[in-house]
Amino acid sequence: MRPYCTAVIMAAGKGKRMGTDISKQFLPVCGKEILAWTVEKFEASPSVDEIILMAGKEGREEVQELCDRYGWKKIRQVALGGKERQDSVANGLELLSAQTEVVLIHDGVRPFVTEEMIRESIEGALSYGGCVIGVPAKDTIKVCDKNQMAVETPERSTLWQIQTPQTFQRELICRAYEKAKADGFLGTDDASVAEHMGRQVYVAKGDYRNIKITTKEDLVIAEAFIREEKA
Questions:
Q1: What would the pLDDT profile of 143-156 be if each residue is shown by its tens digit?
Q2: Which residues, listed in sequence order, are joined to residue 80 by a DSSP beta bridge?
Q3: String of b and e for 39-49 (b: at least 16 CB within 10 Å)?
Q4: Going by C-beta distance under 8 Å and a sequence separation of 6 or more, which residues neighbour residue 48?
Q5: Are strands 160-169 and 102-107 parallel, antiparallel or unpaired?
Q6: CB–CB of 110/211 below 8 Å?
Q7: C-alpha to C-alpha distance for 164 and 86, rounded to whole angstroms
Q8: Given phi > 0 = left and psi -120 to 50 = alpha, else beta, which region is 69?
Q9: Under 8 Å CB-to-CB from 225, ≥6 apart: which residues?
Q10: What is the pTM of this model?
Q11: In the prediction, which pLDDT does 14 show?
Q12: What is the mean pLDDT of the segment spanning 158-186?
């Protein structure tokens, strides 16, 4: 019997790097909002039972309007995010239904997640407690000081670019977020919050197409991917 899984999707960001008046999750790509492309992957997934959408104060009505317009059936709640992404995730964890066993945390502007990634992240969470999707780094990475002088070159074979979903057994991630709050710890992602509690997280191989749409250049790439999928 498969576990009851809840996807907590982050749609509270303002997307300052995009440089547009509209928050990036609401920007249209091939006739549909980025957030809509993303949500529909989880809406269609047989592995996901319900969805919690975390929205910003200014964008909450817009997110609810998308839910109404597209008629998504799995939406449990459109909830208010926090100041930081970590605060938004913490708010979402408090809203999980009683039967939730596994939590998938995903970026609302990462619309090229696949059912295989969703399924593998759930299987990884069941086996290891926590599992994130990622891809091996293609480029050499430099560690620089505040003057942008390279001070270290880590071994590339050990470096992975981490994506989402980041998936965990419910008890583990809830305890990790409680500890982070108590310690005043601010992680860079959900895996780092679990690591702060002393838990290792498994990295499952994702896909280089699973991009996070952050800049205007990403919009061009996203359009190309969607047109290719449609073709």
A1: 999 999 999 999 99
A2: 55
A3: bebbbebebbb
A4: 5, 6, 7, 42, 74, 104, 118
A5: antiparallel
A6: yes
A7: 14
A8: alpha
A9: 112, 209
A10: 0.95
A11: 67
A12: 98
What is the pLDDT confidence band of residue 22, given thresholds at 50, 70 and 90?
Answer: confident
Q: Whose structure tokens read 């994506």? A: 163
122 within 8 A of 104, measured Cβ to Cβ? yes
Q: Hunting for tokens 């997307």 — which residue is that?
A: 15
Amino acid at 23: S
Beta-bridge mates of residue 143: 152
Give the 3-state DSSP-derived string for 19-74, with helices as H, strands as E and coil as C.
CCCCCHHHCEECCEEHHHHHHHHHHCCCCCCEEEEEECCCCHHHHHHHHHHHCCCC
CATH of 5-133+164-205, one of 3.30.870.10, 3.90.550.10, 3.40.50.1100, 3.40.50.720: 3.90.550.10
Q: How far is CA 189 from the centre of its chain?
A: 9
* Helical segments of the chain, H only: 34-43, 60-70, 85-93, 115-128, 170-183, 190-196, 216-230
Taking the CB of residue 7, how many other CB atoms lie within 10 A of it?
A: 29
